[in-house]
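PROTEIN DATA CARD
Card holder: Cytidine deaminase
Chain length: 160
Origin: Formosa sediminum
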Amino acid sequence: MKIIKIESEFEVYNGLNEVPKQVSELMVYAADARLKAYAPYSEFLVGAAILLDNGEVITGNNQENACYPSGLCAERTAIYYAGAKYPDAKIVLMALVAGSTKHKTTTPVPPCGACRQAISEYEVKQDLPINIYFMGETGEVIHSKSLSNLLPFVFEKAII
Ligand code: THU
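Structure generated from the sequence above:
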């Protein structure tokens, strides 16, 4: 028997004013996309913005459905669109903003497990870490320099 210890490192910024300009600019795209989310059931709006290495910015938001499981998170809406539109581009940065319309969300909202798995697919595919910044509507911003911090022991194509 052996024990494996896995360490994850995250940077925590006090607010948007502290993050690099490129990131705060991308957060503005994410915040704008968030306001266009279709979330009549949860009233929890999420926006995602992706910066590609070709300079393009792709945005997405959560799209809910009366048949709940048919809806999709903002992160996957955005990343699948990026993959569909620019299949050869690499993802440099992802900015995520999330919050309820029923109360103010002031703590950072990380991507859900399914979205982590989806983002991981692209990190593995492009063989380049994806920087992920996530936040609530306001407040602290958390930075992960790679998706792998958020999903150790990932199930990926090399396993298959
Ligand atoms: N949601 C996202 O868009 N991204 C996440 O990572 C977590 C959850 C959405 C799904 C659903 O529309 C709403 O937030 C509440 O769960």
